[in-house]
Amino acid sequence: MITDCHIHIEPIELFKPQALALITAKRDNFDEIANYCRSPKAFLQYLDRCGVDRAVLINYVAPEVIGFTSAVNQFVADYTKHDPKRLLSCGSLHPRHTTNIMADVEQILRLGLRMIKIHPPHQLLYPNDYLHGVKELEIIYRAAEANEIPVMFHTGTSVFPGARNKYGDPIYVDDVAVDFPKLKIILAHGGRPLWMNTAFFLIRRHPNVYLDISGIPPKALLTYFPRLHEIAHKTLFGTDWPSPGVTEVWQNLEDFKALPLSKERQQQILSKTAASLWPE
Predict the structure, then answer these.
(1) What is the rounded distance in angstroms from the CA atom of residue 46 to the CA atom of residue 40?
(2) Cα 277 from Cα 280, distance rounded (Å)
(3) Which of 85, 151, 71, 77 is nearest to 113 (CA)?
(4) pLDDT tens by residue, 165-192
(5) Dihedral of CA 95/127/119/142: which sign?
(6) DSSP-H helix ranges across the chain
(7) Nearest 5 degrees, angle CA 183-CA 186-CA 188?
(8) Which of 57, 232, 60 is CA-nearest to residue 158?
(9) What is the pTM assigned to this prediction?
(10) What backbone phi and psi angles, to 5 degrees, belong to 71?
């Protein structure tokens, strides 16, 4: 059972014009993608054509950069109801865009979201800002830890207008891994293209930290992570489709399968790690 842990199915109408323009400029088939964002049935047919069984649908709150509000949580919860075994929901909370963090956390739990996304370069914060007065982050992490909900952090750079890439250094996740040792933490994109060594260290250092290889061209994966075989048991396949510069899901999958990794390690990355985080 192949899981793509990182696909962007999001409410098109919430995008800021500049962010949407960047995506549409890179996608000749944007109308098709927009249809997938409105039709779970059509999107599942796309996954079938690509040879993917399950997908985690990434949504996050980032009004300043992308335009997304907390409405994304209800959107993804409603969308994934079409087939909750194949469509896994990822929502978000933003410390600066909440008037009642406890109520917002309760909504996440009530909606049954399967993952929480924190996007530091788009939310304009450091993952460890709870150490510097942003107590809302601590509440988010404690709730996720207590309810066994993984938290995914964007690590690495972003090309979207307004993104601040200083926040993308994964070293700030080190504090989170230490302070919340039972929290399942996923480093999206492995810090690419600047901080892969830091990401690799954190994954080996902390039992609760995992790697998501989305956004890394599979042909470059072993250049970015030459010792990937050492952390295959903590690595998740993902594409980051349809983000700018990302090839179609089927092409990502085909290129990954062509890598000189053992069948056992490929199966671990494509299927088993995700199954351990999100059992059927």
Answers:
(1) 10
(2) 10
(3) 77
(4) 999 999 999 999 999 999 999 999 999 9
(5) negative
(6) 17-26, 30-38, 40-50, 71-80, 101-111, 120-123, 135-146, 173-179, 196-205, 218-224, 249-257, 263-267, 273-277
(7) 155
(8) 60
(9) 0.98
(10) -60, -20
